[in-house]
Amino acid sequence: MIKIAVLSGKGGTGKTTAVASMAWYSENLVLADCDVDAANLALTMSGRLRTKDDYKGAYIASIDPKLCVECGKCEDNCHFEAITDLKVNAIHCEGCGACQVVCPAGAITMSLRKSGEIFVLDTARGPMVYADLFPGESNSGKLVTIVRRLADDLAESDGLDTVLIDGPPGTGCPAIASVTGVDLILAITEPSRSGEHDLLRLIELAHHFSIPICVAVNKWDLHAGMTREIEESCRRQGVMVVGRIPYDTNVMASIKAMRPLPSMFPKSPAALEFHKIWKEVRSRSKERKGSGLSLKLD
Questions:
Q1: How many CA atoms lie within 13 A of 154 on its CB side?
Q2: pTM of the model
């Protein structure tokens, strides 16, 4: 099984557009949208809902009024001001359990609460797993790991040979969970100073975990000089640039229509470049198959 993660050092670089476009050129794959804080790949890769499950990833305190002696220690020791008049505010509660520790009557219990939902869709290019983490909830890295494992299980059960991951922006816990055990990272960047800066942080992350990484510059022709600087930076880091995606007005038209770019404009400049990038990425991931570092994230 080949596992490819598409990431970006910052948001808005065209990562999801790239994933949807590359998926259009393949049939034997599983899609995994690991940007659980803002999953939108399903808007483009529409499909039929297969399963929907609750995600319980955070704890919340509850006070039993029959056992409570109204000493107020829980309220005094709550650093998040989640307890007022012996009632727990679900929005403010961080599930730390301090109130349970200080309660002399054992009136407080900690229980898992619903923090989001996990979906499996059947799309025209294979099954897709994604999740929706509710606003303000934590443990997004844990939810990403669940999405990853479910995608791997689907690939095995359905006899599919590729898992294509639409990862979150940045280099934090969700990004690390997205690249665990992958064979290759494709980083999508843009020709700007901030794009270069965040790309270098992403390359550093990949090197730290010994994961092969390659780069594609989106809308490269909006600043050809900056594109050359990014390519030079990649060369110094020993990273291959596998594509230059031109600015293409058809991309916005496909986003508005909520369809993959190649399905509407197969001969558009950006679609043709995505096809070339996908062939290169597939080839490189097969060569380096199994080289990703496996980490157990509980």
A1: 26
A2: 0.88
